[in-house]
Amino acid sequence: MAMKIDADLCVSCGACEEACDINNAISQTDTAYAIDASKCDECKSAGGEQKCLPTCGVDAIVKA
Length: 64
Ligand code: SF4
Ligand code: SF4
Known about the structure:
- By secondary structure, this protein is mainly β.
- It has one domain (3-63): Alpha-Beta Plaits, CATH 3.30.70.
- 8% of the residues lie in helices and 19% in strands.
- The protein is built from one helix and four strands; from the N terminus they run E-H-E-E-E.
- It has one helix at 15-19, and strands at 3-5, 26-28, 33-35, 61-63.
- A hairpin with a 4-residue loop joins strand 2 (26-28) and strand 3.
- The longest helix is centred in the first third of the chain and has 5 residues, at 15-19.
- The chain starts with a strand and ends with a strand.
- The site of one iron/sulfur cluster (SF4) has 14 residues, from helix 1.
């Protein structure tokens, strides 16, 4: 499973991209940031806590 970003909520602050420093699953698109589901393992390889979640002040990151 992977996380995803609700593009309608994302304000493109970029904080989550920096947090995803192990899998590098998050990148900027034309309209918002997006998570590559093929790279996101919900941080299972980084201890299990989804590192991007607490960085998003607008709760745009949700379960895919
Ligand atoms: S859950 Fe982890 S691997 Fe997935 S996008 Fe967030 S920080 Fe990256
Ligand atoms: S932290 Fe939230 S608002 Fe900022 S780029 Fe990521 S998803 Fe968008």
